[in-house]
Amino acid sequence: MTKPADVERFVSEAISEFGGVDLLVANAGVSSGAGLLDATREDWGTTFELNSFHAACATRAVVPSMRERGGGRVVFVASISGRKPVHRRWQYGAAKAAVIHAARCLALELAPVKIRVNSVSPGSIMISGGQWEKYRVDDPEHFDRFIREEMPLGRLGQPGEVADAVAFLLSERGSWINGADLGFCAAVAAIIPARPAASINPVDALRTE
Asked: CATH number for the domain including 127?
């Protein structure tokens, strides 16, 4: 997803197979980054390429087909990290903030050709085989404390809840929504950390404990 030629080839194959492109979900990304003194230039480049640049690259590839077909709908999957401070992973947060901003800018740019662009910003999602599941198994006491202290609804989100939000924005029911960022994080974004370590990153926790 970080190589424009590969993205363009993928889109071209989709157009050949299905006759055109109506919908795009840009969902590539990885939670990465380090503190100011530890991060390298390569860390910055890789984080932005995978979390931000791919969205612009994919959108550029599908716009000609969408315009030819009379419009389209695009959703970027950002993160709650793009809305609130992220301890020790601020390259990731900055990259996701860029995705949110890009969606709003492209919503304005592409509205005249009837292409809607929105973003969604999920919070912590429990994915089978993912980092949160590993964290829950390897350190259940620490995990339970995180849920009690940091998750107002007492649980992590589920992939299906993210999918439902994306499907809504892609559907005709969301036809009047353009340039919006739909954040769903069980009110986590409303919490102002009292200390830098308040928000537990499962990657850091598994690395150090």
From this structure: 3.40.50.720
